[in-house]
């Protein structure tokens, strides 16, 4: 099988979108658009590597967006998209793949079929691009925007919209880009054409849209969630007893108390229950399977890493966490004064809006071990959405 690297172009500032952040770092269904795009290629079995080209001014946003993904260091972009692509290709030249797929970071809805079809087309030609035939009637007007039809109807026969990914044999596209430097061509297919390479049009799903404005983002979110028709719920329950100390960890927040919780990690009973709930929703076992208490690596560990691991497993399946609900069961300490901080912390760990996180507390009216103030229990429920696969 040929080696194939996806080159994700994410160096633009998205001025047409507006706002303070480049659009690729805005969230789509709880995760940055860039992460959604990168994951689409990381999941594909024929893609052997992913490189991302960024504006270094936004390196902090990039690092947060791809946290936990197995990626090499990003490539510094140039003043134009064409320059950025060339920088990316040059960065790959030392360990050149057989094939390269060049893709816009702002196209997060690219599906596996489009990737497969572009790669397949490179078996018989040097270049291939995802494209859709024009379906709408075209009119030539007097001015941009609202104007008068002056040129009549444009014949749309044989007209296609060029999308991405655009795939090439690496040995052909790098020298083509080098020769085209400074020509200001509109896409990589135009670079290939300038070099005399035949470009194959590969029909793809119309949903492979490019997010350029707020309406596009809203549409992309609807389309993304519509793909996730397999809705699952998982539950978790955990208990930890008290031990001498002066604080307890609950939902990733340090709460002052006249005791601590006894456990191999930080004994965050709430995060442990929630981790099990998410793992249960995707049928991935329990927290002990992934982080055995017998392993010294987890002694005193921050339970946030357990929860992030569970969330990453959902993302690897192409899913999203839709909502989480935690109930902390204890007489003391009082949870109410810390509830907002707990919600914010869980939301931050999972990359969710706080509106998708619920933290509640209750007592057992003096009954049982929690009523006797011997420890704390927690139960949790998690709802996840996964791609619908009929089995």
UniProtKB/TrEMBL annotation:
Top-rank taxon: Bacteria
One of this protein's Pfam families, by short name? IspD
> Site annotated as Transition state stabilizer: where?
16, 23, 264, 363
For a divalent metal cation, which residues are the binding ones? Answer: 238, 240, 272
Q: Which chain positions carry the site (Positions MEP for the nucleophilic attack)?
A: 156, 210
EC number(s) reported in the record: 2.7.7.60, 4.6.1.12
Q: Which cofactor does it need?
A: a divalent metal cation
Which annotated residues bind 4-CDP-2-C-methyl-D-erythritol 2-phosphate? 238-240, 264-265, 286-288, 362-365, 369, 372
Q: Does the keyword Lyase apply?
A: yes
Protein name, as recorded: Bifunctional enzyme IspD/IspF
**Species name:** Niveispirillum cyanobacteriorum
Lineage per the UniProt record: Bacteria, Pseudomonadati, Pseudomonadota, Alphaproteobacteria, Rhodospirillales
- The gene it comes from is ispDF
């Amino acid at each position: 099988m040929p080696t194939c690297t996806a080159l994700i172009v994410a160096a633009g500032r998205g001025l047409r979108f507006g706002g303070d952040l480049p659009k690729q770092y805005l969230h789509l269904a709880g995760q940055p658009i860039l992460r959604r795009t990168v994951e689409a290629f990381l999941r594909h079995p024929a893609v052997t590597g992913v490189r991302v080209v960024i504006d270094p001014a936004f390196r902090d946003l990039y690092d947060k967006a791809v946290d936990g993904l197995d990626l090499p260091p990003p490539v510094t972009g140039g003043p134009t998209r064409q320059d950025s692509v060339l920088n990316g290709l040059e960065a790959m030249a030392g360990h050149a793949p057989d094939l390269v797929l060049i893709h816009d970071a702002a196209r997060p809805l690219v599906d596996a079929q489009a990737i497969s079809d572009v790669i397949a087309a490179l078996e018989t030609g040097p270049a291939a691009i995802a494209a859709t035939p024009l379906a709408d009637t075209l009119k030539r007007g007097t001015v941009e925007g609202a104007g008068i039809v002056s040129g009549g109807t444009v014949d749309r026969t044989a007209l296609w919209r060029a999308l991405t990914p655009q795939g090439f044999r690496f040995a052909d596209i790098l020298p083509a880009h080098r020769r085209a430097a400074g020509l200001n061509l509109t896409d990589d297919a135009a670079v290939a054409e300038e070099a005399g390479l035949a470009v194959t049009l590969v029909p793809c799903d119309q949903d492979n849209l490019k997010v350029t404005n707020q309406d596009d983002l809203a549409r992309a979110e609807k389309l993304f969630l519509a793909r996730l028709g397999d809705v699952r719920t998982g539950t978790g329950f955990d208990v930890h007893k008290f031990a001498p100390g002066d604080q307890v960890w609950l939902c990733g927040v340090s709460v002052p108390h006249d005791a601590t919780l006894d456990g191999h990690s930080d004994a965050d009973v709430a995060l442990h229950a929630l981790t099990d709930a998410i793992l249960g929703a995707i049928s991935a076992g329990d927290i002990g399977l992934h982080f055995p208490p017998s392993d010294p690596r987890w002694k005193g560990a921050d339970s946030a890493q357990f929860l992030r691991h569970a969330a990453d497993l959902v993302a690897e399946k192409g899913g999203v966490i839709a909502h989480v609900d935690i109930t902390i069961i204890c007489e003391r300490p009082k949870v109410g004064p810390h509830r907002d901080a707990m919600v914010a912390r869980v939301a931050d760990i999972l990359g969710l809006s706080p509106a998708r996180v619920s933290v509640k507390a209750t007592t057992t009216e003096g009954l049982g071990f929690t009523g006797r103030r011997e420890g704390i229990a927690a139960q949790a429920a998690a709802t996840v959405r996964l791609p619908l696969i009929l089995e």
